[in-house]
Structure formats: C-alpha cells, structure tokens
Design brief:
Radius of gyration: 20 Å
Helix content: over 70%
Order of helices and strands: HHHHHHHHHHHHH
Number of helices: 13
Mean pLDDT: 88
Oligomer: single chain
Shape: globular
C-alpha cells in the first residue's frame, strides 16, 4: 500500500488537492509503519505548500495533515506540542461550515485517548462522552471507538460497574456496522473480555477473549499486532483465574504477545 501511495505521488497531471491527499495518506502510512519522524516531515512539508486561507476543497485535507502532524509529535513523545496541534485542528474542524461531524468526533476521541494516557481522566471522559453523543445515532463505528476508549478510561479509574455498559455497547456497535465475523469485532470482543474480567465475570471474560482471539487469528494470522494484544489479554485472564494458571504459561503468553507487538 505504501509503494502504491509513493507511486501515486509521482504521477504526472495530479492536481494540487489530490497531491495533498496523497501526502496525507503517505504520512498516515508512515505513522502506521512506526516512522513518526518521517511522517512529521511529510505532513509538515505538505502543509507548507498550502495557503493560509484554504479553499473549501482543501479544508479537509488540511485537517488530515494537521492530524498526522499531531500523531507524529505524540509518537515522538512531544506530548505538549502534539496536544497544541490537536487543539488547533479540533478548533478548525469545529469552525468550518463544510466540515463533516465525523471529523470532530474522530478528533475528540483522539484527544480523549491522549488525555486518558496522561491520566487526566476528567477532561478525557468529557471529550469521549462528547464524541459519543455526536456519533451515537449516525456513526456506529466511531461511536464504538469512543465507547471503547471511555470503557478503558473508566476501568483505569476502577469504576468497573460504569465501564461495563460501554464495553458491551462498543462490541454491539461494531457488530452492527461490520458484522459478527470481522476482525475488528474480534478486537471489540477482547475489549469486552477485559472489562468483564475486571468486573469479576471470569466465565464471560474467557468466552469473549477466546472468541475474539479466534476471529483475529483467522483474519490476520499470528503475526499481526492485534493478535499480540489478544495474547496479552489471555495472559491477563490467566492472572485473574489465579487458581488455574502457572508461571510458565503466563510467561510464554506474555513474551509471545510482546514479541509480536
């Protein structure tokens, strides 16, 4: 996919808007490939070619490029700078008359996730609930992303009873949008299993994690990061089922999961 994007960037006759969209896609792929420094350079170079007052046709690509700048900064551990860039991007998205509500939802969810990682839970939860309120009736998959992040935040605060309904909802919305056999449904099941474990429902936890792991393995194989995360969830399950595990099994699952990630 990255090779195709590189080739598209070199095609003659590409108009300015399309060229910027290609650069935004390339930066996103560089981020996924674990190359934040390269992604930052790509996105910043593309932004430097845009006018200060963008035309309507380029407003969304500006948001995409700014988001890639923010994500690259975050992955380079420039957290304060990343937050400032994300705040600016969110402000632009909210102010643009032709912007898609889904843009604001995605940015609010991302900011909520980052605030959660910084253990700034109250504003994180506010962002995630705002995103969820905007997405719930029209964007089920984005609603699932916000619900999953909100469940994770509440679990980190040991608010287990509050977290579980959001964990259930994110799985239901994923199934609604993608179907019961999609690999993302597998990841949603893993998130549901983690919440069930922490809420004390060990049989339900095992059922969800086993089903989710099977879906991910079938779709992606055993070398994909999603499968590594599933193995770590299995290791956590073994710790909760403390009468049924041994150190060798736990260590093997943990080492294998971390090696894949």
């Amino acid at each position: 996919a990255k090779a195709l994007t590189d080739e598209a960037a070199l095609l003659p006759g590409t108009d300015g808007d399309t060229a910027l969209e290609v650069q935004a896609t390339l930066a996103a792929m560089q981020t996924l490939a674990g190359e934040p420094g390269t992604a930052l350079t790509t996105a910043q170079a593309a932004l430097a070619t845009m006018d200060d007052e963008p035309a309507a046709a380029t407003s969304r690509v500006r948001l995409q490029l700014l988001t890639q700048v923010a994500e690259a900064q975050w992955n380079l551990a420039q957290h304060d700078e990343a937050m400032r860039t994300l705040d600016r991007t969110l402000g632009l998205a909210a102010a643009q008359l032709n912007s898609e509500p889904s843009d604001v939802v995605a940015l609010l969810t991302l900011r909520g996730q980052w605030r959660m990682r910084l253990q700034d839970f109250k504003p994180a939860d506010t962002d995630l609930r705002h995103a969820l309120g905007m997405a719930l009736s029209v964007y089920p998959l984005q609603a699932a992303d916000a619900e999953r992040a909100l469940a994770t935040s509440l679990l980190a605060q040991e608010r287990f009873d509050e977290a579980l309904p959001f964990a259930v909802a994110q799985w239901q919305h994923t199934v609604q949008f993608l179907g019961a056999n999609h690999p993302k449904t597998g990841s949603a099941l893993i998130a549901l299993g983690n919440a069930r474990c922490l809420a004390g429902d060990l049989p339900g936890c095992r059922e969800a994690i086993e089903q989710g792991t099977a879906l991910i393995r079938t779709a992606y194989g055993e070398d994909h990061p999603a499968y590594g995360s599933a193995l770590l969830a299995q290791a956590a399950l073994l710790r909760y089922e403390n009468s049924q595990w041994n150190w060798d099994d736990l260590a093997a699952l943990t080492r294998r999961g971390l090696a894949i990630l």
